[in-house]
Amino acid sequence: MEGTPRPDATAAAAIGAMDDLIATSMVAQQEFARNLGLSPTDLICFAYVLQAGDAPVTAGDLAARAHVTTGAVTGIVNRLERGGFVTRRPDPADGRRVRVVAVPEAAQRVREVYEPYYALLAQLFATYSPQEVAVLNDWFTRAGTLAATYLEESCGP
Predict the structure, then answer these.
(1) What is the pLDDT of residues 37-82, one digit of tens each?
(2) Are 87 and 101 in contact, with CB atoms under 8 Å apart?
(3) What are phi and psi of 50, to 5 degrees?
(4) How would you list the strands of the sheet with 98-102, edge to edge?
(5) I need a labelling partner for 83 at 20 to 30 A (CA). Which of 4, 92, 125, 132 fits?
(6) How far is CA 143 from CA 43, 130, 137, 146, 150, in A?
């Protein structure tokens, strides 16, 4: 696949398009969270739990990733646990620490909310050549790292 001819764009135009995507994505996250009975921050934390897969995360891990205090993350984990999204397990290496794991049925509910959107994104990616997808993947990965670094440096933990 050669890829579709693309219109020329400047960095400023690409940043503007990215800003629009981010704003729309933030609104979508709020709606996805509302549909699941969660706050956007609770959904973000649950997403981090899901990303960890078989490696349960600590409350401290969640606090750092979501940029909230450990006190705030306790409330988030409490709400997620009450809502049936996560369970707490003792850390086998440190009995004072608790690990947070996703409840499989809750993970499935979240997948059901996101899968139609991800299917549309997959259709969009299919309009790009493998080389273009590689560039997009590289850009998203590097931009994500840059954003996380900037957040840490400018806003602190």
Answers:
(1) 999 999 999 999 999 988 889 988 999 888 899 899 999 999 999 9
(2) yes
(3) -65, -40
(4) 57-58, 98-102, 86-90
(5) 92
(6) 22, 20, 10, 5, 10
